[in-house]
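Regression test case RT-17, inverse folding.

Input:
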């Protein structure tokens, strides 16, 4: 699997360190607020598992699955809810955990939905941010790392369902996806 990776951008140790930092900040910011932490499936599962273990607050979790990409590396611009939340968000302090913000379309859609459902507050925590490609005015509140405009995989991020289990974030070789 490693031979499909052009370059490792962020190691397991770097991700561990940033999760600790963000978790400590969230512990302060959400003290006494009993946040509802929403994991955007499937890419954010590893990062969420790290973050919530570092949040020393009463915390509830839920999951949402949306799709905008299909199997391509380019956004279709369409966001579809595949699995909705189980927990009502009205009056809750919601923290969305994402793997990566690219165009911002996915989060734009999730944030407006949560606001429409009367969440008290909605904040975004993302492992990776690709600001170069942003078309929506989504600004994450907590960011692990910024990444260049390359297709990255690992630590939850996939290409055609693969590579999510890599313990680091790396750039996928173009030859893996260029003929698809
Ligand atoms: P938007 O464009 O809506 O996209 O901000 C967010 C979603 O797109 C996926 N995405 C990627 N997945 N490597 C991936 O594995 C990437 O470089 C990449 N860029 C965007 C991701 O699922 C994210 O939730
Ligand atoms: Mg995703």
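Golden output:
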């Amino acid at each position: 699997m490693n031979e499909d990776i052009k370059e490792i951008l962020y190691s397991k140790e770097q991700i561990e360190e940033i999760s600790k930092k963000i978790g400590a900040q969230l512990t302060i910011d959400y003290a006494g607020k009993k946040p509802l932490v929403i994991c955007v499936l499937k890419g954010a599962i590893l990062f969420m598992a790290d973050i919530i273990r570092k949040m020393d607050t009463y915390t509830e979790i839920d999951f949402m699955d949306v799709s905008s990409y299909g199997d391509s590396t380019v956004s279709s611009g369409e966001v579809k809810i595949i699995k909705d939340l189980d927990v009502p968000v009205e009056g809750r302090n919601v923290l969305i955990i994402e793997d990566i913000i690219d165009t911002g379309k996915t989060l734009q859609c999730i944030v407006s939905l949560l606001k429409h459902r009367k969440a008290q507050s909605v904040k975004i925590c993302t492992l990776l941010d690709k600001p170069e490609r942003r078309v929506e005015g989504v600004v994450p509140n907590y960011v692990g790392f910024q990444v260049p405009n390359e297709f990255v995989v690992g630590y939850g991020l996939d290409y055609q369902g693969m590579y999510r289990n890599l313990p680091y974030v790396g750039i996928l070789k173009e030859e893996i996806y260029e003929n698809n």
